């Protein structure tokens, strides 16, 4: 397997806080990589750097053989990296359906003169996506009227609608009711595997990590403290003590 | 009934009423032509409002359209050529200025537009040898598509053109707002950064709407010039821009008919108020604005569509 995303020596400090303190990480094509770690460890910061929202002060990020360090989000998305957000970023005055439709149109090119011709196909694609994410019942509701879990799903569906090769998800299951969590993740994983998407996801639920991640990276104070298969990493006493213990009670 | 269908039906109804009203007296035809022109300019402002942006300087493009007619009329004395020429000049100006102002949002966007319109106002005033300053320029009699018309027929031609343009721009704006480009305007208002993460440039989305709005305002200016036959720098003065925003709020930003309902109401109230209580006009204006903001945020269109919605439900 080859690395789809390759981060080397990423550093970024906010004042005295080292949110990234020498991050080296290769994300392999096709894998599901979980990121775990306590609050403030720099997990979101990593995603922010990989998607062009934040520019690292040092280090390089390579995607699919090309350097993308500090490129703007728009360019990075077009190269095939999409993301979802820890706090859902929806268009609050639009319906769920419109949110998804806009994501599909964005991928296909809203400035394209062919847009009107493509709309029926987009509509079909949108309906299918809504169905897969179980969002059909709320399709006509305004995004700001949804509960946290549903907004989270809509947020992820929008990222999936972009048909990325690499999807970075920031806590996809937080806010989703515990009783629905596993079913939701299962569906999501099925959708992504089918499409051959490589996924990186920040996760606080160790059961989800154990079940769905091929590898897990443990973040701690801007560094990667451990990296490997979940069975190994999660069994490590140091990880148990410093990360899982804290994360579970955070 | 869907919103576009309701708008189409009401739009045609209003158009028919306007024709009847214009037939009643010559001054009514004049007032309504101006109202339609302003409605077209306000329609452009409505597109920007969708993105949550208020331009306090769009009279600039009305003035550019009007002065284009005045400047070009001696060499191209035909309305059918002057109108598209004026629209083109305004569109180019909108593209150039839009490249700059589309970087800004909210108060900065509003004030930049205001500042530029005032710069143009001063230029019109100062370059007397070109513009005749505050005296303004008289527009000579024009032909229409090669035909020499008497005064009344020409006025009817301009009125009809304004009406047809209003309907065409209204239909276009509706289609635009329902398209992904239009929906992306609303996305700029609520969560612009997400658009970036979807690979879309919010600036380009806003710029497109801005250029369209400049084109519409340019057409409006050309119609105003052909109706009043006299252009002055006041067309670009900040109060003229304020008037457009006022009409947008009065008419309601919820639908493409709002700008026209607002403009018609505004012009009629203005004419009647000027005739009966001349010195109280500003006060009436202020009171109406206050009432709309306090009790009818959706403006005239909001009141109408709520009523129609209730009727349909019953
Ligand atoms: N834009 C920013 N400006 C200032 N400080 C920031 C910024 N972004 C992150 N930080 C700081 O960097 C550190 C890492 O933040 P980050 O959001 O990456 O953590 P996290 O691992 O995602 O935590 P959580 O589990 O709470 O989401 C924190 O101390 C945070 O306060
Ligand atoms: Mg985070």
Structural overview:
The complex is a heterodimer of chains A (250) and B (314). Chain A is an alpha/beta fold. Chain A folds into two domains: 1-80 and 164-250, P-loop containing nucleotide triphosphate hydrolases (Rossmann fold); 92-163, no CATH class. Helix content of chain A is 41%, strand content 25%. Chain A has nine helices and ten strands. In chain A, the strands form two sheets. In chain A, strands 6-7-8-3-9-10 form a six-stranded mixed beta sheet, with helices on both faces. Chain A has a four-stranded antiparallel beta sheet with strand order 2-1-4-5, with helices on one face. In chain A, helix 3 runs parallel beside helix 5. The longest helix of chain A is centred in the middle third of the chain and has 18 residues, at 115-132. The model of chain A has no long low-confidence stretch (mean pLDDT 90). By secondary structure, chain B is mainly α. Chain B has one domain. Helices cover 78% and strands 1% of the residues of chain B. In chain B, strands 1-2 form a two-stranded antiparallel sheet. In chain B, helix 1 runs antiparallel to helix 2 (26-50). The longest helix of chain B is centred in the middle third of the chain and has 28 residues, at 151-178. Chain B is globular. The interface between A and B is medium-sized, with 28 and 22 residues. The complex binds adenosine-5'-triphosphate (ATP) and magnesium ion.
């Amino acid at each position: 397997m080859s690395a789809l995303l390759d981060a080397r020596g990423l550093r970024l400090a906010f004042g005295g806080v080292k949110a990234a303190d020498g991050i080296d990480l290769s994300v392999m094509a096709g894998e599901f990589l979980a990121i775990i770690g306590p609050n403030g460890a720099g997990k979101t910061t990593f995603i922010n750097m990989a998607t062009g929202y934040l520019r690292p002060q040092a280090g390089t990020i390579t995607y699919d053989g090309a350097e993308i360090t500090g490129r703007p989000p728009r360019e990075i998305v077009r190269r095939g990296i999409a993301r979802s957000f820890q706090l859902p970023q929806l268009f609050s005055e639009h319906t769920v359906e419109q949110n998804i439709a806009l994501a599909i149109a964005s991928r296909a090119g809203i400035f394209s003169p062919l847009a009107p011709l493509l709309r029926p196909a987009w509509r079909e694609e949108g309906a299918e996506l809504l169905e897969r994410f179980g969002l059909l019942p709320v399709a006509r509701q305004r995004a700001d009227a949804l509960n946290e879990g549903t907004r989270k799903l809509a947020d992820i569906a929008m990222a999936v609608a972009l048909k990325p090769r690499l999807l970075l998800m920031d806590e996809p299951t937080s806010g989703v009711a515990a009783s629905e969590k596993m079913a939701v993740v299962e569906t999501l994983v099925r959708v992504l595997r089918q499409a051959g998407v490589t996924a990186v996801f920040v996760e606080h639920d160790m059961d989800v990590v154990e079940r769905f991640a091929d590898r897990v990276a443990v973040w701690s104070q801007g560094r990667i403290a451990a990296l490997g298969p979940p069975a190994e990493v999660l069994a490590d006493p140091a990880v148990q003590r410093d990360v899982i213990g804290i994360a579970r009670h955070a | 009934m869907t919103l576009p269908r309701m708008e189409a039906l009401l739009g045609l109804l209003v158009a028919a009423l306007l024709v009847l009203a214009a037939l009643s007296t010559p001054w009514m035809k004049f007032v309504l032509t101006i109202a339609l022109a302003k409605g077209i300019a306000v329609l452009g402002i409505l597109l920007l409002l969708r993105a949550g942006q208020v331009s306090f300087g769009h009279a600039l493009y009305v003035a550019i359209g009007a002065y284009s007619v005045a400047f070009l009329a001696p060499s191209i004395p035909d309305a059918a050529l002057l109108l598209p020429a004026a629209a083109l000049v305004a569109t180019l100006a909108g593209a150039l200025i839009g490249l700059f102002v589309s970087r800004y949002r909210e108060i900065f966007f509003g004030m930049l537009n205001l500042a530029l319109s005032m710069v143009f106002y001063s230029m019109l005033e100062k370059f007397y040898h070109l513009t005749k300053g505050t005296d303004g320029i008289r527009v000579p009699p024009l032909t229409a598509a090669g035909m020499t018309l008497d005064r009344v027929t020409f006025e009817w031609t301009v009125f009809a053109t304004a009406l047809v343009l209003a309907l065409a721009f209204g239909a276009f704006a509706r289609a635009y707002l329902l398209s992904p480009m239009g929906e992306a305007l609303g996305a700029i208002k609520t969560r612009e950064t997400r658009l970036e993460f979807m690979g879309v440039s919010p600036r380009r989305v806003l710029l497109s709407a801005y250029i369209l709005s400049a084109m519409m305002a340019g057409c409006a200016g050309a119609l105003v010039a052909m109706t009043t036959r006299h252009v002055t720098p006041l067309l670009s003065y900040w109060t003229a821009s304020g008037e457009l925003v006022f009409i947008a709020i009065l008419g309601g930003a919820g639908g493409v008919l709002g700008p026209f309902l607002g403009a018609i109401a505004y012009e009629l109230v203005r004419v009647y108020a000027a005739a009966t209580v001349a010195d109280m006009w500003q006060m009436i204006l202020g009171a109406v604005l206050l009432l709309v903001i306090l009790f009818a945020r959706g403006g005239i269109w909001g009141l109408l569509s709520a009523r129609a919605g209730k009727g349909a439900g019953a």
